[in-house]
Specification:
125 residues; three-stranded mixed β-sheet; little secondary structure
């Protein structure tokens, strides 16, 4: 299996990829930082959170934000989120765009199925 390069997704603290997992276009999960280690995926909000990302999120021009998730990515992200709810007691999910002026994840988590799983709250604390 190919590895995700840390170039472009490198942690600000120099510990490799800041995400705990990245979901590839075909839904395959590329492991990142161990969940036991604090991520570096959203400045000021890494402690007590799990950072998942997906490949995509921009239109063909490579600049304009666009929800490009494949059905396989959506299914995998849902599975990862449900697993995190069960294993770690995850209580909510949010996108970078709720914490900063970034466009990612290129969709509104609060209106997405991910943010509306049973017993789950969407959005920022």
């Amino acid at each position: 299996m190919p590895r995700i390069s840390t170039a472009g997704i490198k942690s600000a603290v120099g510990s490799g990829i800041g995400y705990h997992a990245v979901v590839l276009l075909d839904g395959t999960v590329q492991p990142g930082r161990p969940v036991e280690k604090v991520g570096a995926h959203v400045e000021g909000h890494n402690t007590g959170s799990i950072g998942y990302s997906y490949i995509g999120g921009v239109s063909a021009d490579g600049k304009t934000a666009k929800d490009t998730r494949t059905p396989a990515q959506k299914a995998t992200m849902k599975r990862l989120t449900i697993e995190a709810i069960k294993k770690y007691g995850l209580k909510r999910v949010a996108g970078h765009n709720e914490y900063s002026s970034k466009a990612c994840p290129s969709f509104d988590v609060r209106k997405d199925e991910l943010g509306n799983l049973e017993g789950f709250k969407a959005g920022r604390r």
